[in-house]
Here is the input.
Amino acid sequence: MSTKLTLFFRTFFLVLVLPAIVQAADPVTELAEFSVFGKIDLAELAKGGIKTATGAPMSTARYLSTQSCFVVPQPPAKVLAAMKRFDPTAQRELNVYLHSELPGAPSASNFSKLNNPPGNSSVKALSAATTKMSPELQLSQAEAQKFSPGQPVFAFWSELLGKRAAAFAAGGVASQPPYDHSGKALRPAAEFAGLVRQQGKVSRQFGGFLGATGLLGGKGSLSPELYWELLEVEDEGVLTLGASYQRATAGGGAQLADGLYYASGGYNVALTLYQLWPVAIDGRPSTLVWRGDFISADSLGDLHGIERLASESAMRKDILKAVTIFQRNSSQ
Amino acid sequence: MNYRFLALVTLISCACAAPLFAGSGKDFSTTSEAVVEEPYQFSAEFTIEQAYIGGAEVQRGARKVDDFDEYYSNVSFIYTPRIKFGILRLGAGWERYSFGFPNGGQQLPNTLQAVTSIVGLDTKYSDSLLFRLEAQPGFYGTSFDHFDGDTFNVPFVLGGTYIYTPELQFVFGVGVNVQSRYPVLPGGGVRWKFAPNWVLNAVLPTPRLEYQVNRNLTVFAGADIKANTFRTDDQFGNSHGDTGLNSAWLTYEEVRAGVGAELKINSSFSLSVEGGYVPYRQFDFHRTEVRYHHESGAPYGAIMLHGAF
Here is the structure.
């Protein structure tokens, strides 16, 4: 009798319960499990609202994070297509002056746009900082030693960026030289690992995906889409290298990761994660989007008390601006 | 491809703009009431300030107090734990004005000092509006021997900042001190980063023009307005020729104008040094109409160590 009961429960579990567990939770529940938002009202978000919140607190002072979620009235495939089409240089408020894709095996020649950089004050500031090898530039000692007075500034940067991008393509972020030109020894790989490790729930949600990228160590099994940008941070030009990854999830959704694994100044690294779920709003195929932004910047470490509070507000506003553009672009 | 759709600009700029920042975005979003587990971090701030003001002169009719100098000391420690609604401010402070009167100082006490607790909250109404409510209940008198219930006072400030853009913020507020000549004083100003490295930080009580030489060094020129009320002891008037000055509230005001430099020692500590001139000060027993007006100013020098972690 007892054996029959055991068999019954085992069968019940295997046939009825296990499939329900294995099947992905519904998007709202899944989002609630790993985000800071808890249970969201999908109908409210479908009206076009954007929820933003400061992410889970992190113990490293130079780290800051923001999470946002919103609905795009298009299916995930169209949202992904809109992301691929997106040109940040077309959005003035993003202050991205140059953006260029990189091939799988990048070299200095892929940075030819730097031969004719914009002549604005931010780029001039970067140029001046390079000429005097300012301690605020984020380079390795070996890279800094390669700069010789009189050398064209952006030829130096093209060479440096080409080598760093090639190193990333070959060995992931672990292959990136440290920022130790000014004495501190900060490694981009350690910064990514720290950002992810200190976001426990997000880390669990994206851990498998991130482990397959080049952002948490070696090359990873997923192929990145590489790019570089010249943008403005705090009135100064910053050259940055990025890598984007994507993988499909069960049920027609997707996870995406975008990591800025090198910056000539302003911030150490930045990571943006997305989770997309297909949802139906009044019968219309739509996408529920969760986005997490994580940044490491030395200047954030200097903020305390109300300054920290204000910096979180500023980051949320900044993300809101970016997400608004994203939502607008994706909805078309 | 670029999945970021993100400007890092403001995000980073927030870190560099000292007290208050941020954007002009549309506030149609809802800020989540996210409940997250906070990792414990001891957070606090402290200030140690010492200043010396050289020989100056104040006068009341024929009563002249000349060539008196001043040592100013200010120490405060504030515990700033993060809570759901913002940042609590719980601490204590000690402020002391010590005057050296060569000729007795007429009707002026040679020491004004306060020992206070600090209770406040920094919070936000939205991503554009931040508020601070802070009270400093404590004893405001002339010497430790005479601190009692009569010297107890609870001045407080309520201030806010509207963050218009990362470069421009408007500060407004009101200071309330029922024992002061003006119990309610409006304050505020504007903070405007009008050029790279240049900030007009025209916010009372320390309006300044700042130039950031590099990430660790800022030089500035501006003013520092100090004002507080203190109560004399119940025998003070008897010994200074006017019984009306027994247990009298005195409002002391001082304006410093100078230049200085602030050196960031590391991410937690900064050291400021400044010097200049004190063009105005006044001792005012406002309820008994005994006022010592500024007659001549004096040079000053100050040093301040500030920590926040």
Q: What stands out?
A: The radius of gyration of chain B is 22 Å. Helices of chain B lie at 9-16.
